[in-house]
Every structure is written in C-alpha cells, then in structure tokens.
Design a protein that fits this description.
This protein has eight helices and 22 strands. With 403 residues, it is an alpha+beta fold. The strands form three sheets. Strands 3, 4, 5, 6, 7, 8, 9, 10, 11, 21 and 22 form an eleven-stranded mixed beta sheet that branches. Strands 12, 13, 14, 15, 16, 17, 18, 19 and 20 form a nine-stranded mixed beta sheet that branches. It has a two-stranded antiparallel sheet with strand order 1-2. It is globular, with a radius of gyration of 22 Å. Keywords: Amino-acid biosynthesis, Aminotransferase, Branched-chain amino acid biosynthesis, Pyridoxal phosphate, Transferase. Belongs to the class-IV pyridoxal-phosphate-dependent aminotransferase family.
C-alpha cells in the first residue's frame, strides 16, 4: 500500500518485513516502579516527504522531542486503547484490532497526522511485539496486557503554519499490565459504580473533537472527578443529555410501552461520543439476537429487545426511576469492558439505579470472546502467532533484521 502526494511522489508505506529488532541486553534490569510495564516498544517514524520509516522493536526507553514539537505545544497527539489476553491454552489474543487501527486513522486525520497504512502490515508488527511480551501477559480472568498505540507530531508545531499537516510524526506502541476486573467489577451482587453527573465541565460539543480519541480530550477526566466517585457522568445541553461516563460509552435499559426491553445509547451522528469498539460489538450482538440472525452467545438475554440510538437525559433517567421503566444502566469500553452503574449524584441528589442481571451476561460474553472461550462466529478474536526472532532474545546485545 502506498500513499500518493499531489505532486505525484509516492510515500513509503509501513512494511512489517523491514522490521529492525534489538533484543534486550543480558544485563537488562527493570527500573524500580516500572515492573508492570512491557519490556519492549515498537516505533515507526514518519516524514511528510518520504513517508513511513523503518519499524523498530527494541527495549522500552524514553522519547526525545524538540521543545517546539507539535505534541508539546498544541497537544497534536492521538492514541488507542487495546488489550492482549492469554487463553487457558496459553495462546495470546487481540480483540478486533483492525477496528482500533481504523479509529486511529480517523483520529490522526482530524489532527493532520499521517493516517494511511495497511492494517495487515501494522497488525503483523503488533503481533510480534505481543509475542515478545508473552511471558508478561497474565492468564487470570479480568487481567490482561494493556496496549497503548500513540501517534504524535514530532516536528515543530509552533505558530501559524501554511497548512495543518505535520512535517514529521512518530507512531509508537508500549504496553502495561491492566487489571480491569478489580477496578470495575460486574459480578453478581455487585452494587455498581458511583457516578457524579458533571455540570461544571463540558467534555464535548457538536462539531468538536469528542468523537476522536485525542490526547487533549482526556486531560479533564481526572480534574472533574469528585472524591468517592468512580468517574464523571458527562452532560451537555440545557436538557442535561448524557454523553459518556469518564472515558466510556453509556447504555440505559428501559421497558418500552410495547413490553420490549430497550438498550438505549447515545448516537454517533452529532460527533459528541467516541465510536467505541466494545459499544459497537454489544450493539451487533444484541441486534443479531433480536432479529434471529444469531442467538446471543450466552443465555439470559430475552428475545423481545431492541437497540435504540438516541439522546437521553438525566431527567429521563429520573422519570424512569419514578415510574419503574428504568431497568438498569451500564458503561462499556476497552478499560472497563462492561460495568454496572449503581448510583448517580445529580443536582445534590443521589439516585440509586436498579441492577439488572443482563449486564453481567453482557460482560461475561465480551470477556469470553476476548479470551477465546466463546466463538461468536465473526472472527473477532485474533490469535497472535508465536515469534522467536532467530533465538536472539536474551543473548548478547546485537541488531538483527527480523524475517
């Protein structure tokens, strides 16, 4: 795959076959406080004139930028959140990785960063990085190796430029252990997380960047969170419509007048919420089940259901609590997978949200697919091939070209 410039020149694509691998030296020692981080990192530079440079996998290390780099001056950076899972058989799995790559392309395009590459080539590089980290990936349910691909502008981004496009950029990938189950459980008897409905800060607005996974979107998440609450429930508009909770998509479960159980979530059309991959997967599973295209992978989801993508507000949630039509609420995303919402603070009042056993079915289904325990029939789980770069890892430090 090549990207063509307007002057007719072709830019070099990402090519997994040109990977340059540097093994850990035999004297490698994990720095204090870094024990949960991966040992390796993948880097791929980009230049506006020549295109993508040589991919490299080597020991995790610090990055160096010019003080006027666009990432430092104007937060020209976007990222993805992914996870690597280990099955009971010991093999590694990634969940719908090309969906993440496509979303990264979309975010990069919004910032004027490079946004063209062959997903198969990038996936091959990801797989080799994961294979190297295989000993670090935990095998217990709820545990995983979190993957953070990041794309940023490394060229000077200071002042007004002739156009919005970066001259140089860097795509890098690092990993770290992430134990989501312990932080956001949805087990039987769990009361769910507590949310604070936030009026003071606005996360996103129509025409903004809320639907892109940009670094600048997430700096306000922690500053707005009140003590004692898991995260903020983001509101917008005079109606106090709900957009996201922290950094996850939100669903409510309501009983409709015709007796159907509705799974209602914010639409993507106004550009306020992130097009979550977990969100998309849950919607597809529910819609296939409702239409008899495929049964839901686990029992516990009724047939009389529908997915509704529309705005919903805090006043609607309160009314649903009063008339009994609100049957549950949950958030979903890479970090939390699926988590029950048990309590919301709104305008100095506390509202208890009823629990719903279907939420645990959704979570068990998603984690089962991710860990290779459930075959959903859609090839969502990608098995990472084993990779041993000519047995060089752990020997005396040298540079090898991976085959």
């Amino acid at each position: 795959m090549t990207a063509t410039k307007t002057n007719g020149h072709t830019l070099a694509p990402i090519q997994a076959s040109s990977l340059y691998f540097t093994p850990l030296p035999p004297t490698h020692v994990v720095p204090p406080g870094k024990e949960s981080h991966g040992r390796y990192m993948l880097t791929i530079p980009w230049n506006r004139v020549s295109g993508w440079g040589q991919p490299k996998i080597g020991p995790r290390q610090d990055l160096t930028f010019d003080p006027l780099a666009g990432v430092l001056q104007y937060a020209v950076t976007c990222f993805e959140g992914m996870k690597c899972y280990k099955t009971d058989k010991g093999d590694l799995r990634l969940f719908r990785p090309k969906k993440n790559f496509d979303r990264l392309k979309r975010s990069a395009g919004r910032l004027g960063l490079p946004c063209e590459w062959d997903n198969d080539e990038l996936l091959e590089l990801f797989a080799k990085l994961m294979a190297l980290e295989q000993p670090l990936v935990p095998s217990t349910d709820g545990s995983n190796l979190y993957i953070r691909p990041t794309l940023l502008e490394t060229s000077e981004g200071f002042g007004i430029k002739e156009d919005a496009f970066a001259a140089e950029a860097l795509l890098y990938v690092v990993t770290t252990l992430n134990l989501g189950l312990g932080l956001y459980p949805s087990s039987e008897g769990d009361k769910g997380i507590k949310l604070d409905a936030c009026n003071e800060y606005i996360r996103a607005w129509p025409g903004g960047t809320g639907s892109y996974k940009l670094g600048a979107n997430y700096g306000t998440v922690n500053i707005s969170k009140k003590p004692g609450y898991a995260m903020s429930l983001w509101l917008h508009g005079k109606e106090d419509f709900i957009s996201e909770a922290g950094a996850m998509n939100v669903f409510i479960i309501k009983e409709a007048p015709d007796g159907y159980l509705e799974f209602i979530t914010m639409p993507l059309s106004n550009g306020i919420v992130l097009p979550g991959i977990t969100r998309e997967s849950i919607i597809e599973l529910l819609q296939d089940h409702a239409s008899d295209k495929r049964d839901f992978p686990l029992e516990g989801v009724p047939k009389k259901i529908r997915v509704v993508e529309r705005d919903f507000s805090m006043p609607e949630i309160i009314k649903g609590l009063e008339d009994g039509t609100l049957k549950g609420m949950f958030g979903c995303g890479t970090g939390v997978v699926v988590v029950t919402v048990g309590e919301i603070q709104y305008q100095s009042q506390t509202y208890k949200i009823p629990s719903n056993p279907i939420i645990k079915v959704l979570r068990d289904t998603m984690t089962g697919i991710q860990r290779g325990k459930i075959d959903e029939g859609r090839s969502w789980s990608f098995q990472v091939p084993e990779w041993n770069p000519q047995g060089k890892e752990g020997e005396q430090e040298e540079h090898v070209t991976a085959a």
